[in-house]
Design goal:
It is a single chain. The chain has helices at 7-33, 38-59, 98-127, 133-193. The protein is mostly helical and 194 residues long. The chain has 2 domains: 1-83; 138-194. The radius of gyration is 53 Å and the shape is rod-shaped.
Length: 194
């Protein structure tokens, strides 16, 4: 059976299929064109094809994957396959290293937990009600506009306040001078009375 699984056998089988099909096609061409040897070519080609189909029917289909090498007993319907962490199925079959598998599963578990937290955050954002946000932004825009107007008015008021302060300072100086003049007048009047 090992020869049937070899690359050489597979190459020979594919070569026979290709050559047999080519001979049948050439025989058909010869027959259509009524050339000599058409019947012999058709007979040879069809016999080769019949042999190939018989061979393929006896051998059965090939497996693409050999999972039973990794999981012994997988191709037996009644076998009891142990979980990956349980170790070897029997003493002759080496098992998987439990620590390595556990570390890999632990790393995958950490990644899945991180993804779960991220998805939870996204779900929280999904549940937020943004329906009144536009109105709130409009209200905030109006507030900032009024605040800017008030700041401009305050700036104008500050200028007015400075001018008022200067006028009050000048008025105080004038009143001080008038008080001095009035005081001098009172002194002069009291001197006149005496």
């Amino acid at each position: 059976m090992s020869f049937l699984k070899s690359k050489t056998f597979k190459y020979i089988k594919n070569l026979l299929i290709g050559v047999g099909a080519a001979v049948v096609l050439m025989g058909a061409l010869f027959k259509l064109e009524s050339w000599e040897g058409a019947s012999e070519m058709l007979i040879i080609g069809l016999c080769v094809e019949a042999f190939i189909f018989l061979l393929l029917g006896i051998l059965g289909p090939e497996k693409d994957y050999y999972w039973e090498k990794l999981y012994p007993g997988l191709d037996d319907y009644s076998s009891k396959i142990s979980p990956l962490m349980a170790g070897p199925v029997d003493a002759a079959t080496p098992g998987l290293n439990g620590e390595v598998v556990e570390q890999q599963l632990g790393g995958m578990l950490n990644e899945l937990q991180g993804m779960s937290k991220s998805l939870g955050s996204l779900k929280a954002l999904q549940e937020v009600d943004f329906s009144g946000t536009g109105e709130q932004i409009k209200t905030m825009g109006n507030f900032y506009t009024r605040l800017n107007e008030a700041m401009a008015d305050l700036s104008d008021s500050l200028e007015d306040t400075k001018a008022y302060k200067q006028q009050m300072t000048a008025l105080n100086q004038n009143l001080g001078s008038l008080n001095n003049v009035y005081g001098n007048m009172l002194t002069a009047m009291s001197n006149i009375r005496q």
